[in-house]
Design brief:
Layout: H1 21-49, H2 53-69, H3 72-76, E1 79-87, E2 92-95, H4 96-111, E3 112-125, E4 129-140, E5 145-157, E6 160-167
Parallel strand pairs: 1-6
Antiparallel strand pairs: 1-2, 3-4, 4-5, 5-6
């Protein structure tokens, strides 16, 4: 019974029911999914965190050593299958380790008699980023030499590059 103007009102509205069992089950499923995702996220972060500064530098220098040997297989072993390779100074993007990136390195090896990368300066941001400034010497088949100064930005996932962005001086030796 309700009386107007008084605080003592009696309501005929029943108390709120407890959540239905189906709703509780749905919430439990969502909670389990979240816990699973959080565990996977932690596991992935742990894998990425395993790349400390010396490991990132070693990966980059192993990559350049393979490029300098003109060893396409060893070069590609440094990349994730879905990696991208961008030459920012020329608006060129190559996608896929076994497709466009492979073709790019095969073209580089055909274009030059010798390539060399060295005099590295690395800036490392663990767990998965490194920037490298370096000197490049490309020897053409006629013996002439082209010297460049480049800077690469590497993003690393599970111990391999998932993205490389290149800023290069001179002509586009990778196109």
């Amino acid at each position: 019974m309700k009386e107007r103007g008084t605080r003592a009102e009696v309501s005929a509205v029943p108390p709120r029911p407890h959540p239905a069992p189906a709703r509780e089950e749905g919430l439990n499923i969502q909670l389990a999914a979240y816990r699973s995702w959080a565990g996977l996220k932690t596991e992935l972060q742990h894998k990425v965190r395993s790349m400390d500064a010396p490991s990132l530098i070693a990966l980059v220098e192993r990559y350049f050593a393979a490029v300098d040997r003109m060893d396409v297989e060893a070069t590609l072993a440094c990349f994730e299958p879905d990696a991208s390779f961008t030459i920012a100074t020329y608006d060129s993007v190559f996608r896929g380790r076994d497709g466009e990136i492979r073709t790019m390195f095969e073209r580089l090896n055909a274009r030059y008699a010798r390539v060399w990368h060295g005099a590295f300066d690395h800036v490392v941001q663990p767990p998965g980023r490194i920037a490298s400034r370096f000197r490049v010497e490309n020897t053409l088949h006629d013996g002439s030499l082209r010297v460049k100064h480049n800077c690469n930005f590497f993003s690393v996932r599970d111990g391999r590059f998932d993205a490389v962005v290149v800023y290069m001086s001179g002509d586009n030796s990778l196109a």
